[in-house]
């Protein structure tokens, strides 16, 4: 377990992404994944009100509803750290960070999850049209009311994250304790200004798309067709650099007798500021490839080998 940023939340080294629950994983499959994750020692589940508004006949909230039913069925609310988000749900006009949106969306999420508080509540994306003072005051009100334990940011630039922290400090509002952003072995733009801002503030990150839409599971290879809604996004990494990364992952995975996916997640977990990479699974079998990341520790030379393989080569 590790502390998440400036909070007192002890989170497992792998965060289970809930974006597939109620979408490509039905309730039965979702329950099986959640059960296996917790049984293996995981305790950190990530979702959002917008999951999965992109599916046929879906309007958002499906993932929260599934997780809520599972929590009730298992009676394990206190053993699970639940993170959800606000600010991207177009249905109902909840795709902003205005005070009324945050208040309404929080109540909706609490109802769907069937809980009396949310452990970690993210601003899903920045909203430049709404003053940060208004957004942060609304989050602070939720914390003071006991409906949210901690707040965090997602998809913020370094400047906007720093600005939000300054506003909270000045006004005495609850401060963002962590950042969620796109980061993995083949997408490393987080490294630099943004990671420095996170480190300087004493925060930590929980990266999403930690497996590059499935590419870093190792199932995407030259000449191999993969049936997945994410196949097009994952296949774009299948270039010379991607092949170098896969070769390095294969080598390290073989040395540890483990899966390529768990090695990719362990590399990410070893990066400065990263507390818990987020990864999702549609089935318990898929989850099996991720679970070793809860404990897998890579050697310094293995981390260096993977880092070097993923560097962009300039000719």
UniProtKB/TrEMBL annotation:
InterPro entries: AKR_Detox_Biosynth (IPR050523), NAD(P)_OxRdtase_dom_sf (IPR036812), NADP_OxRdtase_dom (IPR023210). Keywords: Oxidoreductase. Residues 13-310 form the NADP-dependent oxidoreductase domain. One of its GO terms (molecular function) is oxidoreductase activity. The keyword Oxidoreductase applies. GO terms for cellular component: cytosol. It comes from the Bacteria. This is Aryl-alcohol dehydrogenase-like predicted oxidoreductase. It comes from Saccharothrix tamanrassetensis.
């Amino acid at each position: 377990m590790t502390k998440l940023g400036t909070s007192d939340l002890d989170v497992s080294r792998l965060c289970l992404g809930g974006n597939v629950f109620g979408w490509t994983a039905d309730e039965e499959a979702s329950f099986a994944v959640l059960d296996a994750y917790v049984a293996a020692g995981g305790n950190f589940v990530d979702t959002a009100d917008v999951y999965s508004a992109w599916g046929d006949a879906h309007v958002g909230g499906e993932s929260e509803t599934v997780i809520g039913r599972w929590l009730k069925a298992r009676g394990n609310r206190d053993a699970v750290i639940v993170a959800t988000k606000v600010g991207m749900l177009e249905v109902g006009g909840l795709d902003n960070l205005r005070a009324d949106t945050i208040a309404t969306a929080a109540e909706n999420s609490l109802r769907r999850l069937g809980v009396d508080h949310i452990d970690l509540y993210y601003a899903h994306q920045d909203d430049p049209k709404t003053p940060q003072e208004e957004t942060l005051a609304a989050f602070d009100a939720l914390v003071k009311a006991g409906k949210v334990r901690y707040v965090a940011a997602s998809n913020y630039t370094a400047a906007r994250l720093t600005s939000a922290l300054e506003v909270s400090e000045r006004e005495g509002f609850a401060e963002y304790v962590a950042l969620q952003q796109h980061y993995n072995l083949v997408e490393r733009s987080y490294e630099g200004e943004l990671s420095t801002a996170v480190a300087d503030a004493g925060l930590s990150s929980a990266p999403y798309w930690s497996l590059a839409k499935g590419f870093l599971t190792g199932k995407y290879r030259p000449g191999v067709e993969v049936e997945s809604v994410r196949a097009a996004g994952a296949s774009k990494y299948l270039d010379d650099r991607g092949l170098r990364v896969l070769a390095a992952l294969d080598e390290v995975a073989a040395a540890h007798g483990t899966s390529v996916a768990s090695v990719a997640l362990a590399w990410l977990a070893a990066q400065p500021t990263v507390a818990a990479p987020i990864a999702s699974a549609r089935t318990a079998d898929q989850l099996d490839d991720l679970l070793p990341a809860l404990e897998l520790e890579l050697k310094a030379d293995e981390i260096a080998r993977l880092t070097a393989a993923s560097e962009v080569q300039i000719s």
